[in-house]
Structures are given as structure tokens and as C-alpha cells.
Specification:
- By secondary structure, this protein is an alpha+beta fold.
- Helix content is about 45%, strand content about 20%.
- It is built from ten helices and six strands.
- Helix 3 crosses helix 4, helix 3 packs across helix 5 and helix 4 runs antiparallel to helix 5.
Amino acid sequence: MTDVETILDTDLDAYVDNQLDAAGRLRVESYLAQHPAAAARVMSDLGTRTMLKLILVPQPEACRPDTREAARRLSSVLSGRRMWAALQRVAAVAVLVSAGWFANSSLGTREVVASVPPPVFIEQAVRAHQTSLVREAMPSQPEVNTYDREDIRAATAIVMPDLPTDWQISDVQVFPSSYGPSVEVSIRTKDGTQISLFAVRPGHFAVEQVKNLTLAEAEAAWWQLGEVAYAVISSKPGTGLSDEADLLMNSLY
């Protein structure tokens, strides 16, 4: 694995500016997956650039021409960390100028999340959970109950959470996915509930807090940290997985 401890601010700037090759981006993303504070800062920088792009693209009633021209001039001098703070303030003011667009885009997060379908990787997580239940019932399929976080990280570039000592691991499997391998860990919690912990690289960078989902065939709670998304799955209705998900998410910090 590439040493990620030598990542500099200039590497993060180059990542935000899309100036790195695939190997360089993977190196930075592996670093961000292990450093939440740096990941949050990069997300803020990426958000600023996205705001500027939205302002620069002509949209009916989105913002005035003079606002777009000001944003264009500011964008042209974007270089180095010293400009980011000023650009964040200017981008915020520019977006506020277009009051109608801003009002529509600032609706409560809870309502927006509820109106969109679950992420694609949730379906993968449910399938992996169901497969683990089938394997558990088959004597011919030996289970692997060794949970080696460093071994998993080295093989998949996925950082796995610490598990509570009173949780019992019954199986650990690696599955294929669209953006590389995924990991499924079959677990029995302290109260005997059978759950799965699923981790995958979904193909985009985000920082998402825990969200709960009730599906036809499963309960789920998921979150994302950098390039890796995580889900806790149960086939038992009404399990309530947010506490378990919060516990696992916090172990990554």
C-alpha cells in the first residue's frame, strides 16, 4: 500500500482541483478515509467550487449577470489555500443574492432525504446479508470468523470499524462491487440479534451522518465517510439499528 502519512496540503489542493492521476487520487482518498477532519475540510472546498460552478452556469432567475461575472473573475484567481476562506464567503453571498433558488435548495434535510430512493449500495448490502444467512445454514460452507481490520484495509483499501468486544463474529466475506471489493461481516450482537456490517466504495466522495431505512425485506442504517460507505443490515423488522450504526461510525474517528 502507498504511504498516506506523507500527504501535504498541496496534495489536498491538487485533489480538489482535479490535478492528480488515478494513483494520486487513491493515495489522497485513503488518507481522507483515516482523517475525518481533513475529509471535512476537503468536502468544504469541493462544495465551494460546486457553488461557483452553479453561479457561472446561466440559469433562469438563478443569479444576475453581474453576479456571474464577479464569480468568474474570482474563480480565475483560485490558487492556493490562502484564497479558500475568501472564496467561501463570496460564494455564500452570491448564492444568497438569488433568493428564490436559495430558498428552494435550503429545505430541511430530513424531507429531502425521505423523498429520494436509497443509495445503490444498500441493495448490495441487503444481498450480501441474505447470502450470509444462506451460508450460515449450509454445513458445506465453512465460515470465517477472523476479523482482521488491517488485513482487510491492505487488501481492499477499506477501513473497517472497531467492533464491541461483546459482539460475536460468525463470518467475514469479500464480495465484488462496481468500484472494487466490498466487505460483509456477519455478527450477533450482545442481545443475540443477527446483523451484517457492510462496507463498500460507492464511487463518489461524501460525508454523511447515519440515516435509517425501512425496506420491504430488511432494516438498514447507513453512513459514508470519504470514499467508503457503510451499512448495518438486519432481516428482523423493527430492529432499530441507529445505535449500532452510531457506535460503529464513532469508532472510525
